[in-house]
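During the no-cost extension, the postdoctoral fellow (Dr. R.K.) reprocessed legacy sequence entries with the updated structure-token encoder. One reprocessed record is reproduced below for audit purposes.
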Amino acid sequence: MFYGGGLISHLSASDDALNEFIALRKLNRHMAIVLDSDKGDDESELKPHAQRIVTEMSEGAGVVWVTAGREIENYVDGGELQSALKTLHPRLYKKAGKTGQYDHAFYFFRENPNGSGKQITYKGGDKVGAAAIVCNKPIDLDTLDLREKINELVEMIRKANSL
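Re-encoded structure tokens follow.
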């Protein structure tokens, strides 16, 4: 099951989920949930719905992966991602945005449309197009905790299939 952002408030990994939640364990007992941490820095707390899912997942089989960066996109090399965005948005793209662990990796700067010459943050980069470009390059599994989390997922899949 794929979901995005706001749907998390309707999900539950608890077997005792109330009717207003989607009971994930009924979809598959061997499940993995990947959540963006949405953290702005190392000290930030998880949002309540994300913390609830983490707590519920600790009570049974499956993997819960909370990203080590702000979003799943932070696992992609920032330079490669910005290069892809520049390719996709040649008329808009003026300068790379920050691409650190807790930055919005898809943001870049464009000229202000009011003609002031000032650059403003552009937040509407083509995520699908950028993914198509960066997926043609080798992946660096040593970014953040990516190798550890991939290994955890592989192990869960092997166990679920008695391999």
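DSSP finds four helices and seven strands in the chain. Residues 17-21 have pLDDT under 50 and may be disordered. The remaining legacy entries will be reprocessed before the final report is submitted.
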